[in-house]
Amino acid sequence: MTEKNTNDGAEENEKLIARILPDVFIADGFGDCIIGVVEGFSQPMAVLYDKSKVLKSLQEHMEEDEAREYYEFNILGSYVGEYTPLYATKMEDLDE
Questions:
Q1: Which H helix or E strand runs over 85?
Q2: Would you kindly state where each structural domain of the chain is located, as residue ranges?
């Protein structure tokens, strides 16, 4: 049995979205945090990320408080046009 590269799923997520929705913005390095895509009336589709997974990914390289600050200012706070990614907080994470 061969060991699967943990980035394979992330890369596949990114490739699938890029193929189907070439105009959307994909946050670099967070392919494994993708939940799917969202759409709304008169709104363009956008990639939806799991906020908790994004924070955990950042915490691999920095402390928790640094990761939160980085997320808030550099990820959540960045607007890259009408296809800016969105970040979801799951119900089980709402009390954190």
A1: none
A2: 7-93
Task: Give yes or no for a contact between 88 and 50, defined as CB atoms under 8 angstroms apart.
Answer: yes
Decide: helix, strand or coil at residue 46. Answer: strand
Q: Please check the confidence at residue 38 and state whether its pLDDT lies above 90.
A: yes
Please name which of 61, 49, 60, 62 lies closest in space to residue 90, comparing C-alpha atoms.
49
How many angstroms separate the Cα of 73 from the Cα of each of 3, 67, 79, 85? 36, 10, 11, 14
Task: Please name the residue that has the structure tokens 């640094």.
Answer: 66
**In the predicted structure, residue 26 carries a pLDDT above the cut 50:** yes
| Residues 32 and 10: beta-carbon distance below 8 Å | yes
pTM for the complete prediction?
0.85
The DSSP bridge partners found for residue 69 are none
pLDDT computed for residue 5 by the predictor: 45
